[in-house]
Amino acid sequence: MRRLELSFLLLVASLFAFALVPYPEVGWLLMGLGLALAYPYARSVVEAYVAGVKLHDWEVGEWKLLREYHSKPPRYEVCCVLEAVTTSGTLESIEPLKYALVAKDLVEFLAAEEPVILIHRSEDGLHYYLMLRAEGKSLEEAEESLKNKVSILRRSLFTYNLELHPRRPKVLLEVLGVREKRYTWREYLVAVGLAGLSALLLYYLPLFGLFASAVALPTCVAIVRAKLGKEKRYVLGSAARRWWMVERAETVRFTRSEVYHYTLRVSKRMTSRAAVGTSVLLRLRPATLKEQAKLEKKAARRYIWATTFDWLGSTVKAMREMERLQRRFSDIPEALFWCSLLTSNEAVKADLDVLGFSTLRALTPYPAVQALFSWFSHFLERPLEGLFYTLDLAFFTPYVVRRFLFRRGVYLGLNEDGDKVYVDPAALPNFHALYVGSSGAGKSLAARHVVLQLHLSLGANVLIIDPHGEYGEFVRALGGVEVASEEGFDFSYVLSSKALIEYLVQGAEAIYALSRPEAAILRDVLLKSKTFRDAARRLPLTLNALREPFEMFDSGLRVRELFEAERPVSVNLSRLDERAAALVAWLVLKEAELYYSSRGVVHNRVRLAIVVDEAHRIMAPLSLRLLRLVQETRKWGIAVVMASQFVSSFDRQYWAQVGHIVTFSPMDETELRELKTRVSVTTADETFILSASARHHWFPERALLIVKGWRFPVRVLVDIHPLALMENYRLVLRAAKRHGTDSKDLARLVFKLGARPLREVEEYVSENSMNPKLASALLEVYRNLKEPPKPAHLAALAK
Prior knowledge:
Layout: H1 3-20, H2 24-51, E1 59-60, E2 64-69, E3 75-85, H3 99-112, E4 116-122, E5 125-136, H4 139-158, E6 163-167, H5 170-176, E7 179-180, H6 185-204, H7 206-227, E8 234-235, E9 244-249, H8 256-271, E10 279-286, H9 289-308, H10 312-324, E11 336-343, H11 346-354, E12 357-361, H12 366-373, E13 386-389, E14 410-414, E15 420-423, E16 433-436, H13 443-457, E17 461-466, H14 472-477, E18 481-484, H15 498-511, H16 516-528, H17 532-538, H18 547-552, H19 559-564, E19 569-572, H20 578-598, E20 608-612, H21 615-632, E21 638-644, H22 652-657, E22 660-664, H23 669-676, H24 683-690, E23 702-707, E24 714-718, H25 726-739, H26 743-753, H27 758-767, H28 772-784, H29 792-798
Helix pairs in contact: 1-2, 2-7, 6-7, 9-10, 15-16, 15-20, 20-21, 25-28, 26-28, 27-28
């Protein structure tokens, strides 16, 4: 029975004793015992809400916590905070009936190191923190013991592709949402009132006076010490003030399917946006066989007494307890652990009730604080500790946490839990990408969305190979240039280098399917010619197809000049036939490679993003060039993004070289089968990418993000920036022209502000000193800005 309930019963009994028993001493004795049992709760409530919460007695370093026990000889304790993360070790990666075995191993690995486990849902996702502690006679001995613990646990978890990353201890304060207590006249008035009330009660009712004094004195002392700077007191965030504690587990046993099903359920509870700010806290340590034997003896005695007096309810309860004790001999042998299990998530608490756990509401945050920081006081509310079997704790393994997601980079949208999904160029071996989707699925729209972020946010330049001529206005809105075929291209520098002439011959040979004699004739013509027009006149009739492109290659804009000016470039190939377009693309890609290789090697940064739209149209003749770009240009800071309608458009060599792949729904089943031959896809992923959301107007909405090195895709609800819409970047061009301002500056502001209401944009303009012309153009854009339509579920997750 809980102490508070027993205290209430004793206080009620004392009233009856005063009325019915001829000896008042009995009543006073019962009342004294009741008040003594209630004291920790009364003191905790008053101290927490008046003086503030005492968090810990550790000395906080940058990466560790340290405390010294004043004993003889002195002992030291060191603590570190780790986070378990994974790119593929998720519940979906395990067969449901095998999860119970995996969970058993994980719980026993974790419990062997006696950790404190904190599962916390923050704004950026669900985190799984581990606090490991070690003691020693000296600080060096304690640190060495801690290193051994971390090393053993890291090796054990790595078997399941779970990594341990160190975290600074201050993350625990962020989890609890703590802020330092600031005292006002109200706290001082309450403290004085408590002291006065205690004095009055001491005079008139000494027993109640002693109780009130014992409650008020520590609170007043805490306020004085905090005011003098000798102690810090804190106020916890609203989500960390309300906790439920598990008193005991009463379930006889769990089936394998139940373990998986309820773990998945707990995971969904904790990863939902409704759970932001809530936590689950476990403090584990192994129990001994002696304690197991005690439980067995206790259950046997209860059964004997129940059957002796024919108490049916007690007999059934004893039989259930004896059956529960056989879990260590079942098909999954379970160990016994001491555990304090607390949660501030009401949905998880409801699930625990369903699972057969007995839960109690904590009156103050002190049980959670004491369990988290491993300090205990008999005079404050303490966390409950009970005996649990392995599978009782299987619902709280690191697998409840979804996979690791990047926190920065190119934003794609939201996952199913409402967390933002990014692709980080600095965290990938390269930023080369494949975008695959049927006609109208949103490849070009997504490409513009990615270009906006690479150029305006990450500072990369952009080169777009545009076979349809649809990117011209978009590039001009970003301050770039559209190079059209009718204006010509300046490739005259090619004729000054034998290596570049050979490169051109190789391209023409692949694109126009030239024979060896024809390639030799072309090589000889180019070596003897000073201009491409001269070369066009020298070409024999068998090479007549090359005359038209050669006549464009002497005059026009040189793409290198635009690279030097850091201006986005769109090469419009819509007026050319496919072979001439491929030859132009062949030379433009070479020019990009030459320019950026001359600038030297760069690591983990994108200097130039090359977007090849409708890659399936020019993939065949350009396959060698593109493959070489993908293989060799990462070190120059070049990223190649290729978009196509078909998975089969890209050879397996491309799939092996790119850093990430994005596929858009709805995907044809034939294409999905082809996709499954190249990457691992779960059943849930298949359903997601084959289906479309319920809506009346089509707009790209679903995609699978496949990151190199991650075992399974990330399901993404695509969130397109408004500036990627044709209506909006045309609006930027018109507004910039009408108000006489630079379209790039206007586009940069629109990109920064995103889809904000006009009122907020007006406030932004008034708060920031802006060029009047730019401000007028910005307001005109937002008066007519069209927001990308969002499915209902995406809008709900974004709130």
